[in-house]
Specification:
Order of helices and strands: HHEEEHHEEEEEHEEHEH
Helix content: 25-40%
CATH superfamily of the largest domain: Leucine Aminopeptidase, subunit E, domain 1
CATH architecture of the largest domain: 3-Layer(aba) Sandwich
CATH class of the largest domain: Alpha Beta
Radius of gyration: 24 Å
CATH topology of the largest domain: Leucine Aminopeptidase, subunit E, domain 1
Length: 278
């Protein structure tokens, strides 16, 4: 099933631009030649055939986009398929509100970006990371809440959007955990996280480019929005970035990285041609 319908108005609009240019070129070129009726018919058929091919090409390309670039209030924003670990600059990794590092598929799932990060760089031991996070927040004067009743995992809880800068990674408190250690958020909490996250990035990015995933894509549950799609989350991210004070100065940019397994579920063409999808 195609993401972009065959007669999508944005496809038609883009097609009209191409055809206008081609028609103008045809008109200028043919103005220098005198054609008989057979030649006019031939060139007319060529133009018609070319028009059909161009439309189909635009439509196929719209459905197969893997990367787009948009401008949001002067900031270059790239949305693309990729691996966040291969990106330049700072890379955001979403932790839970406790900054847990135990990858056991109960506290932290192996297949999440959080789990992949820990297993990639701290497979033998997370002690150094745990100590770094502890020291970082002591020095950064961040508000911490204790949850001594928690039976497994850490007990220090941080506000959503709190950031710990570790080398070229932005470790951020994202998902709230219920009593069964299930990651869950309400939509207002999700938006609140994003607004604070952008504000924190503005404070620590130091003129570097920043790469982020689609926050909430995966096992995080958003209350009352069970069927929310990655495309919806992406649009919310772009909207909150727009209304935030966060702006990257050239050549720094924001890159939103989409996993290859998710790219085909997101209509990048719509986001590109509809006021950034908002």
């Amino acid at each position: 099933m195609s993401k972009v319908s065959f007669f999508d108005r944005r496809v038609l609009k883009l097609y009209s631009v191409y055809i206008s240019v081609i028609a103008s070129i045809f008109t200028i070129v043919l103005a220098f030649f005198t054609l008989d009726s057979n030649q006019k018919s031939t060139y007319g058929l060529i133009f018609l055939g070319a028009s059909i091919v161009i439309y189909i090409w635009i439509w196929f390309r719209a459905n197969d986009l893997k990367s787009i670039e948009v401008d949001i209030e002067g900031t270059k924003v790239i949305v693309k398929e990729g691996d966040i670990f291969n990106e330049d600059g700072l890379k955001a990794i979403a932790f839970n509100e406790y900054f847990d590092t135990l990858v056991d598929d109960k506290i932290v799932a192996k297949r999440t970006l959080n789990g992949l990060f820990i297993n990639k760089f701290f497979l033998e031991s997370t002690a150094s990371l745990d100590q770094f996070i502890e020291d970082y927040f002591q020095n950064d004067d961040v508000e911490v809440n204790e949850n001594p009743a928690r039976k497994s995992g850490k007990t220090k809880k941080y506000d959503a959007g709190t950031i710990c800068v570790y080398e070229d990674f932005l470790l951020t408190a994202f998902a709230k955990f219920d009593e069964q250690n299930r990651a869950i958020l309400t939509m207002p909490e999700y938006i609140e996280f994003l607004i604070k996250f952008w504000d924190q990035v503005n404070r620590v990015y130091a003129q570097k480019s920043v790469a982020v995933p689609i926050f909430g894509s995966g096992i995080t549950r958003i209350k009352e929005h069970k069927n929310i799609q990655d495309e919806d989350l992406l649009k919310i991210m772009l909207w909150t970035f727009r209304i935030s004070e966060m702006r990257f100065k050239h050549p720094a940019k924001l890159t939103i990285v989409i996993h290859k397994d998710k790219i085909d579920t997101i209509n990048l063409f719509e986001i590109k041609h509809s006021n950034n999808g908002l």
